[in-house]
């Protein structure tokens, strides 16, 4: 038996976990154990899958023994298994972070019991989308993860979350409807929805029909991936969700869209028919996104805009349709999932420690918590692309691929990429200077938590970190009254009233873990780049993918190249 | 193969109405629009199955071309289930919006409006930086380096010491203009609130 035959377990294990945690909904401890254990098992399995396809050898698993192109296939190749490993590692870190937060806050803020099943279903949907070798199964994967994300987005049902949730749900449903329309039309035109089969049959259609189907798919995936003209929903909806949820959304959901765009461009519609529009979209995504980030004062919103902006880099590499460009895109996606998620996790910690996520109100965190500064600094520099981090390597790969192509548009993208990188540094530096280095007194009505650190009871932070029990259940007004009467710092009182630890060890630990993974991407960039270049090579070639699904006899039509010799 | 014109025109009408409705501000109408879009797409899927045929239950005597294409129907079933779940969730959200805000309208993003209204001037980023920031000023330019700063030396501006009576207390003449506008910093709010 082949190891890759276990690929369906990457989807089934999280779903099984969701069912179990749903049964255990009243036992939060058991729930935590089950979900973390099953997700770790999934991660282990996916690491084995990645190891088995590391040197090539794409395999297709036919579900239920129905032979392709009639049955559903799951395809394990280098790109999909790399995405699986990175996404599961990130989801595991966020899960531990979320349980840490739930334990620290005493499960008061949000109905955490529903969090675990929903979260695991989200992971299952992501895995399904990455593995799917069938267009409709990809749609189902998208729907699984989207439906789970609707619930996570509106967790707790507060006003701002519901407002953001409405935008998010409506936009997602519209994009799903577009995707379904595209599937229907593709089925009408070719009579198949197996992606490998489509790679052969779509080439037989006339160019007008091809262009229609191509654009429909790109628009549907473009909304999900937040590519420029279709990206406005993202900064509107992501920042209001709970910190761990935003972290996992930022890391995974848009990247699933990017993954689908990559598959569309390489497997279904190979060649360079729509490369110029894609390059323009990539340029605009990068520049408009980062300009939006500069205008924000809320860190979460700023990061959401950088997320949009950096999607542009991935589309940039893809639109070059060269091995170097695709390889750099694969590497960049893996890098960006890790870094963006860790930044959102750190922001969650900053919000806990500083009482706010607005740079206007934050100050002096470098003194209050040097560890937090370290946790923020590494991924922030990584995002901005400062050498020697993986962000720099990924961007360097993209720029090299752009220069290699050498068209004016490619050069415009190279310049745009460098500019975006600089502006990212500017946006990050603003947060860094204000939240970490200025004096708390300089901030606009800083939270009492910040000022407390500068007074005598700064020592209490460490003592309380081990879990101060709740001493009072009173309103903030009453507490501050009591505090002024007793002469005790308001912050200490409030912290005790909430019964919450500011920086629980599990939350810091999981964030640190993900930051270390981000650094590891830098250290092991050599083999990883080799892998992603191979993956890019294979995706451009298509032979291995199509042969793995349809057998070695399938004939592959040449890619459509318009204009020039490239 | 003949095209079923009724189905196609119903599909078109559903798409048109659906798109019109999702552009409304009322959430219930948006939901109705989404349902119409989903159903129109189901009809589109059905149309891709080609002409109608026999139920796809295998029998030896019937040639393969006589059957209906079962795949679009399977796809429609899946899509119905999905749109059912989404509709239920949207109804939950709409009810929650009603409970929270007592209105059935999509609401503006407060933070968006705030960012839009923020002036491009930022007190901290765009503040005038004194030319001399060293702790060791050149003595020939004055003890605190004020000779080369952007600001006039303290006490040199005319009328800085003059005061005027306003609101039962004395305020500086240079603050008198600002006093006319709301949001003054010079007057403490009265017992019943008033202007801060």
List the helices and strands and how they pair.
The complex is a heterodimer of chains A (566) and B (196).
Chain A: H1 9-23, H2 28-53, E1 59-62, E2 73-76, H3 78-104, H4 115-131, H5 135-153, H6 159-190, H7 195-201, H8 207-225, H9 233-237, H10 243-268, H11 275-295, H12 299-319, H13 323-354, H14 365-368, H15 370-384, H16 390-405, H17 408-437, H18 448-452, H19 460-464, H20 476-486, H21 490-498, H22 505-523, H23 525-541, H24 543-550
Antiparallel strand pairs in A: 1-2
Chain B: H1 5-22, H2 27-48, H3 70-101, H4 110-117, E1 163-166, E2 169-172, H5 173-179
Antiparallel strand pairs in B: 1-2
Helix pairs in contact in B: 1-2, 2-3
Give an overview in words.
With 566 residues, chain A is mainly alpha-helical. Helix content of chain A is 72%, strand content 1%. Chain A contains 24 helices and 2 strands. A two-stranded antiparallel sheet of chain A has the order 1-2. Chain A is globular and about 70 Å long. Chain B has a two-stranded antiparallel ribbon. The N and C termini of chain B lie far apart (78 Å). With 196 residues, chain B is mainly alpha-helical. Chains A and B meet through helix 5 and helix 6 of A and helix 2, helix 3 and helix 4 of B.
């Amino acid at each position: 038996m082949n190891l890759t035959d276990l690929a369906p377990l990457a989807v089934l294990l999280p779903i099984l976990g969701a069912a179990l945690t749903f049964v255990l909904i009243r036992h939060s401890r058991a729930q935590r154990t089950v979900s973390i254990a099953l997700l770790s098992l999934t991660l282990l399995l996916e690491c084995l899958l990645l190891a088995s396809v590391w040197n090539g050898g794409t395999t297709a698993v036919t579900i239920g023994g129905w032979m392709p192109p009639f049955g559903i296939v799951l395809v394990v190749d280098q790109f999909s298994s790399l995405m699986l490993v990175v996404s599961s590692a990130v989801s595991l870190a966020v899960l531990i972070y979320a349980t840490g937060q739930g334990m620290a806050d005493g499960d008061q803020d949000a109905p955490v019991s529903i969090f675990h099943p929903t979260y695991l279903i989200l992971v299952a949907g992501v895995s399904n989308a990455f593995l799917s070798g069938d267009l409709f199964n990809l749609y189902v994967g998208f729907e699984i993860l989207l439906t789970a994300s609707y619930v996570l987005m509106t967790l707790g049902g507060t006003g701002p979350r519901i407002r953001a949730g409405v935008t998010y749900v409506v936009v997602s449903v519209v994009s799903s409807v577009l995707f379904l329309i595209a599937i229907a039309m593709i089925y009408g035109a070719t009579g198949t929805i197996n992606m490998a089969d489509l790679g052969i049959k779509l080439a037989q259609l006339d160019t007008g029909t091809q262009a229609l189907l191509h654009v429909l798919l790109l628009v549907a995936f473009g909304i999900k991936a937040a590519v420029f003209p279709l990206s406005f929903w993202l900064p509107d909806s992501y920042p209001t969700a709970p910190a761990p949820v935003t972290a996992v959304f930022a890391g995974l959901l848009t990247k699933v869209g990017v993954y689908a765009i990559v598959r569309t461009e390489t497997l279904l519609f190979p060649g360079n028919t729509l490369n110029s529009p894609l390059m323009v979209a990539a340029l605009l995504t990068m520049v408009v996104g980062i300009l939006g980030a500069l205008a924000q004062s809320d860190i979460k919103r700023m990061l959401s805009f950088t997320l949009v902006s950096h999607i542009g880099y991935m589309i940039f590499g893809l639109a070059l349709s060269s091995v170097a460009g695709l390889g750099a895109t694969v590497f960049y996606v893996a890098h960006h999932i890790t870094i963006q998620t860790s930044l959102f996790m750190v922001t969650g910690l900053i919000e806990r420690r500083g009482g706010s996520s607005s740079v206007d109100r934050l100050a002096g965190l470098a003194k209050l918590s040097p560890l937090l500064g370290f946790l923020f600094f590494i991924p922030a520099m990584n995002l901005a692309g400062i050498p020697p981090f993986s962000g720099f390597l990924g961007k360097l790969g993209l720029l090299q691929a752009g220069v290699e192509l050498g068209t004016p548009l490619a050069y415009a993208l190279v310049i745009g990429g460098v500019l975006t990188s600089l502006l990212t540094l500017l946006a990050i530096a603003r947060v860094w200077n204000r939240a970490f280095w200025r004096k708390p007194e300089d901030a606009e009505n800083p939270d009492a938590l910040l000022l407390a650190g500068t007074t005598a009871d700064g020592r209490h932070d460490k003592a309380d970190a081990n879990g101060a029990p709740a001493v009072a259940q009173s309103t903030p007004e009453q507490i501050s009254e009591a505090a002024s009467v007793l002469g005790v710092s308001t912050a200490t009182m409030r912290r005790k009233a909430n019964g919450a630890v500011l920086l629980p060890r599990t939350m810091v630990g999981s964030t640190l873990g993900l930051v270390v993974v981000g650094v590891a991407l830098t250290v092991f960039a050599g083999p990883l780049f080799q892998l992603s270049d191979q993956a890019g090579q294979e995706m451009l070639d298509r032979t291995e993918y199509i042969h793995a699904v349809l057998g070695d006899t399938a004939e592959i039509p040449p890619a459509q190249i318009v204009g020039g010799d490239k | 193969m003949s095209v079923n014109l009724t189905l196609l025109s119903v599909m078109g009408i559903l798409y048109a109405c659906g798109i019109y409705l999702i552009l409304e501000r009322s959430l219930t109408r948006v939901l109705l629009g989404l349902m119409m879009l989903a159903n129109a797409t189901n009809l589109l899927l059905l149309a891709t199955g080609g002409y109608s045929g026999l139920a796809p239950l295998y029998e030896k005597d019937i040639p393969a071309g006589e059957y209906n294409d079962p795949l679009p129907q399977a796809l429609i079933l899946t899509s119905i289930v999905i749109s059912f779940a989404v509709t239920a969730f949207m109804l939950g959200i709409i009810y929650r919006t009603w409970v929270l805000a007592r209105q059935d309208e999509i609401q503006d993003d407060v933070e968006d409006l705030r960012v839009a209204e923020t002036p491009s001037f930022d007190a901290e980023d765009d503040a005038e930086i004194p030319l001399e920031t060293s702790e060791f000023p050149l003595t020939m330019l004055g003890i605190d380096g004020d000779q080369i700063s952007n600001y006039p030396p303290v006490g040199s501006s005319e009328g800085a010491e003059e005061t005027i009576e306003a609101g039962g207390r004395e305020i500086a003449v240079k603050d008198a203009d600002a006093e006319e506008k709301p949001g003054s910093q010079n007057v403490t709010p009265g017992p019943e609130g008033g202007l801060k």
